[in-house]
Amino acid sequence: MAVELVQKRIPDQVLRPFTELVAGIPQVMASAKGVDGRYVFVNAGFCDRMGLTADRIVGHRVHEFFPEEMADSYAAQDAEVIKSGQPLRGHLELIVRADGSMGWYVTNKSALRGLPGDGDVVVGVAVLSIDLQSQVNSAHAGLASVIAAVRHDIHHGWRVAEMALVAGLSSTQLERLCRRTLGIPPQKLLQRLRLEHAVHLITTTQLSMGDISAECGFYDQASFTRQFRSTLGLTPGAYRRTARSPASGVDSRHVGV
Fold first, then answer.
1. DSSP string covering 184-236, please?
2. Burial 123-160 (b: 16+ CB within 10 A, else e)
3. What is the pLDDT of residues 100-159, one digit of tens each?
4. Which of 18, 91, 93, 142 could pair covalently with 256 via S-S, beta carbons 3.0-4.6 A apart?
5. Which residue has the higher pLDDT, 132 or 56?
6. What are phi and psi of 48, to 5 degrees?
């Protein structure tokens, strides 16, 4: 498989099926970029989250909108998809919404390939991020109870069997319900809720990372740092620095891009 290192125009026949699919879908942010990292398309959901019109985004790169470390993480994801031709699936991204509440998006990225006559050449990357809040709001009552219980006692060493007991289900039933409703297993849900609380403490308190790790129920600080970086693309310390940067925009724009 070849990768076109010098950006050429992405053929309309390649881009149009994606743009037509995502143009008006609510709760979905979509974008497409060339191999040079410049946006060639953003939908209304993406513009709303960024607080910018499409003409102020298209033609620009992530480093023009996001802090350096965060933009580096996003660009590295794109580069891997472009280089390998393999999609990135189910990547969880925590955001702080415009109203101050925190939520999660699941992001998929896929390579855009040129026309058949041009060979198997990657000419860009398509990105789709979906808000999981609607799934959480409409969740099975038992699952909603689990989420509430874990948030109430986040530092507890929760096991799947305990979570299932709260939900009034067997462990197997809870596993199936989590995957069907949220697309993740109970263990990943627990990690997600711990990280959600960690972000809240990082951005609203002066607690050390060690104290935050313990407060959120992580095994140790090293485990906390590893899971935080794997999910959010930054270390906890870097996230705190980014959140406190006046020009960071992290309070409303930490999204899959």
1. S-HHHHHHHHHHHHHHHHHHH----HHHHHHHTT-S-HHHHHHHHHHHHSS-H
2. bbbbbbbbbbeebbeebbebbeebbebbeeebeeebeb
3. 556 678 889 999 998 877 777 899 999 998 877 766 666 678 888 999 999 999 999 999
4. 93
5. 56
6. -60, -45
- Matching fold, domains 2-131 and 136-245: no
Contact 42, 57 (CB under 8 A): yes
Place of tokens 């053929």: 11
State the Cα–Cα distance between residues 228 and 241, nearest whole angstrom.
15
Q: 10 Å Cβ neighbour count for 206?
A: 7
CA nearest 81: which of 30, 32, 18? 32
Q: Domain spanning 2-131: which CATH class is it, in words?
A: alpha beta
Report the first-to-last Cα separation within the chain, whole angstroms: 24
CA distance 224 to 191: 10
How many Cβ atoms from other residues are within 10 Å of residue 52's Cβ? 15
**In the chain, domain spans:** 2-131, 136-245
Q: Parallel, antiparallel, or unpaired: how do β-strands 2-3 and 102-113 relate?
A: unpaired
**HSE-CB for 122 with a 13 A CA cutoff:** 24
H/E run at residue 83: helix 68-84
Please list, in sequence order, all residues whose beta carbon lies within 8 angstroms of the beta carbon of residue 70, skipping any fewer than 6 positions away: 233, 234, 242, 248, 250, 254
Identify the weakest region by mean pLDDT among 75-79, 158-162, 227-231: 227-231
| DSSP for residue 87 | P
